[in-house]
Design brief:
The protein is built from 9 helices and 22 strands. The chain is of the alpha+beta class. The protein has 2 domains: about 220 residues, 3-Layer(aba) Sandwich (Rossmann fold), CATH 3.40.50.300; about 110 residues, Nucleic acid-binding proteins (OB fold (Dihydrolipoamide Acetyltransferase, E2P), Beta Barrel), CATH 2.40.50.140. Strands 7-8-9-3-10-11 form a 6-stranded mixed beta sheet, with helices on both faces. Strands 2-1-4-5-6 form a 5-stranded antiparallel beta sheet, with helices on one face. It binds adenosine-5'-triphosphate. The site of adenosine-5'-triphosphate (ATP) has 11 residues, from helix 1. It comes from Allochromatium vinosum (strain ATCC 17899 / DSM 180 / NBRC 103801 / NCIMB 10441 / D) (Chromatium vinosum). One of its GO terms (molecular function) is ATP hydrolysis activity. This is ABC transporter related protein. Keywords: ATP-binding, Nucleotide-binding, Transport.
């Protein structure tokens, strides 16, 4: 297996993409980011469905596109598997016909289709037309159709978003099983952080036509490069910094000492992990508890700081559960803080005034 390497410049009215990416030779790479950032456009460029104005795309030794050398391989010659949001199955073909569609000649089609039907728990559906299937079944057929020709790279654009959440989970598991049996480097565009957490080995964050951050999933979640990426990754606590005094960050919410690295001493935002915070710390931030969410062993507190900034805290087993409405102080250890550049808000999203939580 080979890495997919692309360096692309593409413009359409109102949108510019300038993006270099090297997707690993194995595993699932999730592409996330705000709507309109260019994720789908990137997949379409890689697939050959849109043509970049300049750049190159290489898969191992094979050049798919090179503007300087006037190489532009047709989509069919890139050996890609696709699956887009609404599985576009061929409506006039049966389930079996759809799965067999891209199989190379010389393959025992009947056997291969039967194998895929069994794999995806679709035995008995071979003769059915797509319009007689449920959304989840259609997505399974579409997955089989994309993978049956053994593509060199798989491109998935929100493949699970059109199905109900419970079905989504079983589709994810089905997909992971397929990937174990037939490992295929995959680019997965999604807005669903559960897709990213559960499926992705790597994450690329696409914002404004550029790749803002790329890395192993755990690393990207733990160390977002700026406040916008942190927000996209679901970091709950982003506090705006009004000013710094030495290594102490000040804001309407209070002040906190930050062990900032010398190259980011004047970050505009501090992100606070919800874990490892200390309730009842006499030197901590003032906080009023607004709600306690207790699910199984997991207890999450929602609170607000003096300027009404909302804050989320996950309690460890030893800490007693405080009452909603009570006031206390919140100690924030250095390890829980990451200073970041960028804006903390979305003012609407992180403040609650009046607080309805
Ligand atoms: N067929 C098209 N014709 C013209 N403009 C388009 C077309 N498709 C997308 N765009 C524009 O190109 C930009 C990038 O869109 P793209 O669909 O790649 O973003 P995205 O990150 O995939 O968004 P989303 O998460 O909403 O799917 C946006 O400004 C969008 O409006």
């Amino acid at each position: 297996m080979n890495p997919l390497i692309a360096d692309l410049a593409f413009s359409r009215p109102g949108f510019d993409l300038r993006l270099a990416i090297r997707t690993p030779a194995t595993g699932i790479t999730a592409l996330i980011g705000p709507s309109g950032g260019g994720k789908t456009t990137l997949l379409r460029l890689l697939a050959g469905l849109e043509r970049p104005q300049a750049g190159h795309i290489r898969h191992g030794e094979r050049i798919w596109f090179d503007s300087a050398r006037r190489i532009d391989l047709a989509p069919g010659r890139r050996r890609l598997g696709f699956l887009f949001q609404q599985a576009a199955l061929f409506p006039h073909l049966s389930v079996a016909g759809n799965i067999a569609y891209g199989l190379p000649s010389g393959v025992d089609r009947e056997r291969e289709v039967a194998r895929w039907l069994a794999r995806l728990q679709l035995a008995g559906f071979a003769a059915r037309r797509p319009d007689s299937l449920s959304g989840g079944q259609r997505q399974r057929v579409a997955l089989a159709r994309a993978l049956a020709p053994r593509p060199s790279v798989l491109l998935l654009d929100e493949p699970f978003s059109a199905v109900d959440p419970d079905l989504r989970q079983s589709l994810r598991l089905a997909f992971l099983e397929l990937m174990l049996e037939q490992p295929t480097p995959t680019l997965l565009v999604t807005h669903d952080l559960d897709d990213v957490r559960q499926l992705a080995d790597w994450v690329g964050v696409v914002i404004d036509g550029g790749l803002r951050q790329f890395g192993p999933t755990a690393e990207v979640f733990a160390r977002p490069v700026d406040a916008e990426v942190a927000r996209i990754l679901g970091w709950p606590n982003l506090l705006p910094v009004d000013h710094w005094e030495g290594d102490v960050a000040h804001g309407g919410w209070g002040r906190v000492r930050v062990a900032a690295s010398p190259d980011e001493p004047r970050a505009e935002v501090i992100a606070i992990r919800p874990d490892g915070l200390r309730l009842g710390d006499a030197l901590g931030l003032e906080i009023e508890i607004t709600r306690v969410i207790a699910l199984d062993d997991d207890r999450t507190l929602l609170g607000r700081l003096p300027d009404h900034t909302a804050i989320q805290i996950r309690l460890d087993r030893r800490t007693p559960t405080p009452r909603p409405g009570s006031r206390t102080r919140l100690g924030i250890p250095h390890a829980a803080i990451i200073p970041l550049s960028g804006r903390a808000t979305d003012a609407e999203a992180t403040r609650c005034n009046p607080c309805l939580l």
